[in-house]
Amino acid sequence: QELVELVTAENINLNGKEITTDKKTTSELEVSITNGQSIPTNEDERNILGKSIATVIRNNLKDPNEFATYKVLFVTKIESGGVTKRNWVGKVYNATEL
């Protein structure tokens, strides 16, 4: 419910993953907001919204410490003549800043 109050979208998808870099593994939850309504075009405002979305999701997990980072992507999806075009902008937030 809290998430719906922040953003209305065609689809909201959550995808947890582990990323290994230099033999160090971190966990990330990717949040894709597809065709969201009233998404700010201003980067600062969009980052504030993204942080709010990540915070709501983190606070509603069974284990809020499960993921080290949260990647929030605002996806624009256009389908035309059997071709799907996707563009996205987003930001990664550390769990410690949420």
Report on the architecture of this protein.
The two termini are 19 Å apart. It is built from two helices and four strands. The protein is globular and about 45 Å long. By secondary structure, it is of the alpha+beta class. It has helices at residues 2-6, 43-59, and strands at residues 11-21, 24-34, 69-80, 83-94. Helices cover 22% and strands 47% of the residues. Strands 1-2-3-4 form a four-stranded mixed sheet. A hairpin with a 2-residue loop joins strand 1 (11-21) and strand 2 (24-34).
Protein traits:
98 residues, alpha+beta, 4-stranded mixed beta sheet, globular
Strand content: over 45%
Please give the number of β-strands.
Answer: 4
| Molecular shape | globular
Q: State the strand order across the main sheet.
A: 1-2-3-4
Write the layout of secondary structure elements.
Elements: H1 2-6, E1 11-21, E2 24-34, H2 43-59, E3 69-80, E4 83-94
Parallel strand pairs: 2-3
Antiparallel strand pairs: 1-2, 3-4
Can you describe this structure in just a few lines?
The protein is α+β, with helices and mostly antiparallel strands and 98 residues long. The chain has helices spanning 2-6, 43-59; strands spanning 11-21, 24-34, 69-80, 83-94. The protein is globular.
